[in-house]
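2 proteins. here.
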Amino acid sequence: MRILVVGGGGREHALCWALRRENPDADLFCAPGNPGTATVASNLSIAADDLDRIADAADMHGIGLTIVGPEVPLARGLADRLRAEGRAVFGPSAAAARIEASKAFSKDVMHAAGVPTAASETFTDSAAALRFIDRQEEPLVVKASGLAAGKGAVVCASREEAAAVTRSMLEDGALGDAGSEVVIEAFLEGEELSILAVTDGRDVELLTPSQDHKRLGEGDTGPNTGGMGAYGPVSIATAALLDRVRHDVLHPTLEELDRRGARFSGVLYAGLMVAADGTPSVVEFNCRLGDPETQVVLPLVGGGLTECLERVALGQPPSPIAAVPGRFAVTTVLAARGYPDRPERGAAITIPSSLPAGVTVFHAGTRLDEAGTLRVSGGRVLNVTAVAATFDQARASSRAAADAIEFDGKIYRPDIGWREAARRR
């Protein structure tokens, strides 16, 4: 088997790690990869959004299955390009990837499908947006419609803050083309839940539900980031709730996309807000595996991942993915000082050779310099994932390992899973 994973972050390291575990003899490649993926795969020095070179590499290396990690190459049509060349590829078409690449499109799909989500309006004109904001209750959420690398959603405590954020996107071009259209929506109260559904566009196979921690600071304070950590499984994700998500969220969305000629094949990520009464509403859809949720979910897979992804890549319904029973996973993101706006790069990283049992360190923003020293090269640097027989053990091990890893300017949240911990007291 010859497999290519496209991407170079923590999600792709976790993917390569999981695929290698299931396929010890496979020829596994990662483009562009990172120092972590290099330990389990052969890195190819090709940018994830360089469609021509990715297609050439698939041909050169005789790739039988390509798995696309990031949203940008999907939105630019990498899956379409590879399928047109007769290759099996796991990831949606550019048309279907608009469910993430355009928040305005996503909202339109949800409204047409009757999927529960926050009330919203979409704007390209700043004056019209500001008039709308003046009539709304506080707080509000302002979202760049396009892809903004996790920086496009801003929770605004006041109308004044919402107006300022809207001006920065529509008038000042703070997020470039991604912010040339904005979605302004009501703030949803509740608890977040991440659902990853492997689908051929009709049938769905759910991976272990997880919870991301998007805010920078402890207790979910500070600015939104790409994610500071995650854990799974989540006790609020009962069988009844997951059935409701399938019936009220996933199937209607897939049917509406299919109706529009954009059948979705790959992983549909539903970021949910679960209200106190157990009602789920969609905060966002993504067109790929979540990050850092993947780093929690894949270590909990007991088998069947490769077969399931390959079946979907070949246009077949997903097959079951076994979860390891009675195991819990927690991942803590180690970020660089200044993240998310101005992360400092270049610091040397020291990872102790001895870490707590059950801990795996996934590389997200690292590089090796000419002398072979591991250095910081991105905002989110490492994902420290611990798997254990209890949630408390996994949480303690992840936190202990996060504390033991050293680099100048290291920041992380020591409270990943704080809501779950409170429920278990």
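next one coming up
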Amino acid sequence: MRPPKILVTGASGFLGCRLVERLLLGERVPVRAMAHRPGRAARLARLPVEVAWADITDSTSVERALEGCAVVVHCAYGTSGNRKSDHQVTVEGTRLLAEAALACGVQRFVHVSTVAVYSYSPPARVDEQTPLMRSGDPYCDDKIEAEEVIWDLIRQRNLPATVLRMGNMYGPFSLIWTVRPLAHIRDGYITLIDEGYHPSNALFVDNAVEAILLAIRKEAAIGEAFFVTDDEISWRTWYGRYAAWLGGASLVSISSQELKTMLHPSLAQRLRLIGQDIRFAIALPIWQQLGRSQSLGPLVNALRKRIPNNVRVRIKGNQAGQNPCLFPPFGLLQVYAGRAVFSNEKAKRILGYGPLVSFDQAAQITECWARWARLV
């Protein structure tokens, strides 16, 4: 019996392309790769795969892409950086695709979600039944809305869907969790909170693919949500490998209390920061400009000479040491500080999930790619 054709959306992306590789070259099943922009599909284009160039927000192209497919794996989401466009792709694109899949009578629909549906600062105790948490972050909230679309269709129209909430996914070609942290570690950015001995919820991309394949095969997966993560490793263990590849680069850490102060400064701290901004961005540039003025320059310079040196240094501030640390985006710092464990226990129990690739094996594979890509 010929296996059913599988449609993979977001097939030019990090996870989607790796899934297409596995289905095509490992599982030997018919695949249709759905992608939007040929200019971003160089990695996909090297594969002997049927490609459906489609706009997920256009019903005609989506219906055409679904023709003859019995299984859908939905990896696509908005990545343009335009708020309106990303929301349209992530939420309305999901709705259109799922409704079209129902009309086509698909056997399985695997929706790739993320642990970010619990925000970048999730509660310490969380499982698959914990209510999703809106945070105001566009990506997190859009992924919540996309999930809600799927759950509504499961309840109301029996969409045969499974939701996989993926952890922090790394591996070859991962821009977010391999390329970016390597660059941050090399450049001296903060990459650890409280020395990083707490869980990272890391996920190697091939283990994510394993979970998808199991969700397609297992009848018990329908109507369920699963956290998909590797077995527990800390941020220090994970990023320590990255630092070793970079010749033993230092991992920069700050305390959670320092982070809390940055995210939620007191009124006095906010006023002090405003004062610093006024001093360095407004007052000092004006003073320096006046000092260069032909008419007022002599007067300003004469006044400057009358100011005691210690007062002059205090006015100028230690500008070189104002910010000794380099800070990644605050959302990323919040992820680094989180103490939640997104356990893969349910995926192991119901799906038979591994993870098949251990951290040591995943690190070796990723290092080989990083050296090939000249990142280390």
